[in-house]
Amino acid sequence: MGVVFPPNRAVLESAVGSLVLRVDPGKLDDLQVWVNGRRLKAGKKDYQQRTLCLDGIELAFGTNDIKAVALKKGTKVDEATIRVFRRSDISVAASTPPAGFSRVFFHEQARENGCLPCHQPDLAATADGPENAPEKSPCHLCHKKLIGSFGTVHGPAAVWSCLSCHEARGERKFSVVEPEGEVCNGCHENNWNSMKFGHGPTAAGSCATCHDPHASDHPYFLRTALIDICTGCHQDILMKPHVIVGFSNSGHPVTRQVDPYHPTRPFTCVSCHNPHAGSSSVFLQKYDGVSDMSTFCRTCHIM
């Protein structure tokens, strides 16, 4: 048994990927897949096929150890192991791959040729609206768990209108125009360019740094909890008092049960800071950049 994709020491950027295995037909009747010591539900497969495809391989930020174990009548007959790296700009530990790891993409002609005996990616049949069944999309068979594993799904992904964002042609098929902000701005009105200061990812047009363009379990399709996104880059916030050291010698809180300005929301970094842009260098919410900054503070602190 061998791993076709991803190759060992691959650098990936998706939270959910696929595992493609090459096996000897008839030599196994069960398969176990483990990621970082946690067993995944592989489901029943046709073990008479030479190639086995498993969707929904969830990857953590950084290094991931993947092991596939082939069994015959309950006895292990073979195993294959690889180590891959999920890179992300919102995690300091995952921003730089280890030496010897390199970025790989599945949708290149040489890899797709191995799939053609079973898959016919007819792009003309791609679903492009809620009236079409997801199964009509050639992307659905391999990527259904990319969408179905999460609580909320982004509009184009929900109707499998993949070509709304992905290019159908090119040396690397189904890539996204870079910076991806150009794609996002086609649907999402961008009023941040008029602001004096832009947050790094926003200024670079890198919406997908913080937002998952397909689906998420977090508000606004964030890739993880908001506090973890912010402190993934701004680790100093957790290591020293924030803003002011007052009588308590503890500084301003960065998490709290209730936002005093919006009582129906939890207190988070965006209670004070606009995550995209602003009129101040620290992107204060609804701050005009002209008045004394204490005016902003008095929004919550009535003195």
Explain what the structure shows.
This protein is an alpha+beta fold and 303 residues long. Among the domains are: 1-97, Immunoglobulins (Immunoglobulin-like, Sandwich), CATH 2.60.40.10; 105-176, no CATH class. 14% of the residues lie in helices and 21% in strands. The chain is built from eight helices and 13 strands. It has helices spanning 109-113, 140-148, 155-158, 181-184, 200-203, 226-233, 236-239, 293-297, and strands spanning 2-5, 10-12, 16-22, 30-35, 38-40, 51-58, 62-72, 75-86, 102-103, 152-153, 197-198, 215-216, 277-278. It has a six-stranded mixed beta sheet, with no helix packed on it. Strands 1-3-6 form a three-stranded antiparallel beta sheet, with helices on one face. It is elongated, with a radius of gyration of 23 Å.
List the helices and strands and how they pair.
Layout: E1 2-5, E2 10-12, E3 16-22, E4 30-35, E5 38-40, E6 51-58, E7 62-72, E8 75-86, E9 102-103, H1 109-113, H2 140-148, E10 152-153, H3 155-158, H4 181-184, E11 197-198, H5 200-203, E12 215-216, H6 226-233, H7 236-239, E13 277-278, H8 293-297
Parallel strand pairs: 2-8, 2-9
Antiparallel strand pairs: 1-3, 3-6, 4-5, 4-7, 7-8, 10-12, 11-13
